[in-house]
């Protein structure tokens, strides 16, 4: 392992952009399908992995929704979440903010309680046994009507103590943030934090909407913000955190090559960029894989890697005491490596 790779491994990381359904590894998917008596439309783990070639976001989403169809019981949701936590423990991830897409399961008649109880059981155990703190974020599917998001919010009502924030994901182009302005206003009234996917495939205009119409607490992806200088100035002035996902961007052809990834420009502009894995089982890597691939492709130095890590800890929704602890650990790692 190179010195920089060791540095990446040692950093106390926070992951802020992770879809738990996107951490569904093919081996676990086949196991769960079998115990639920479901036949996947692929003969083997290898055949499934071969299908992970995407020209755009929608091609990925079609496979992602198909994959999550095998989840049925509380145990399934627990196993999925626990597998992710155990995997990122080996990457020294210390805090996670996890999205899940309740509508992707409700439309298959899986009760809201089944989903959230399984996920929360794993998150609580992960906090106790693996020392990984967490926040759970309920994400609305933007290809569905706003009415469906409102219905989901109603279902979430008994669990709002356990849901820290709400998000917006799925097919971006044609489904701008403004379509969901009312439901996010209702979420804010309930004290929920708000983050939306914007500027992944969609234009800078969608990021403006996220800021001005939704008043988001952070922005997921945000890559295309760089096309608009005024928007960059605004994001810097507001200290908005961007949860950027390098291997996702490569696999979904948001960038043509990792050497063209905008993270160095984002840091140079003073944007609070962070590195995250998005859907690691589909995009070929977890946190350290993303940081290593990006480092090698664009030549990040230790100071830039430390900044990305600090941005994530500071920009997380962890409790103040937890942030303080992780920032102290970060300073210690930086000192050890200089
Ligand atoms: N759902 C899961 N991953 C996503 C992504 N990268 N963009 C939009 N929706 C998603
Ligand atoms: Zn995402």
List the uncertain runs.
Answer: none
- Total domain count: 1
> What ligands does this structure carry?
adenine, zinc ion
Biggest sheet overview = 8 strands, parallel
* Outline: globular
Query: Mean pLDDT, nearest integer?
Result: 98
* End-to-end Cα distance: 17 Å
Q: Can you write the helix and strand succession as a string?
A: HEHHHHEHHEHEHEHEHEHHEHHHH
Strand content: 5-15%
- The CATH architecture is Alpha-Beta Barrel
CATH class: Alpha Beta
Radius of gyration computed on alpha carbons: 19 Å
Helix/strand/pairing category: alpha/beta
CATH topology: TIM Barrel
Total count of strands = 8
Helix content: 40-55%
> What strand line-up does the widest sheet have?
1-2-3-4-5-6-7-8
Report the CATH superfamily: Metal-dependent hydrolases
Please tally the helical runs, counting DSSP H or I stretches of 4 or more residues.
17
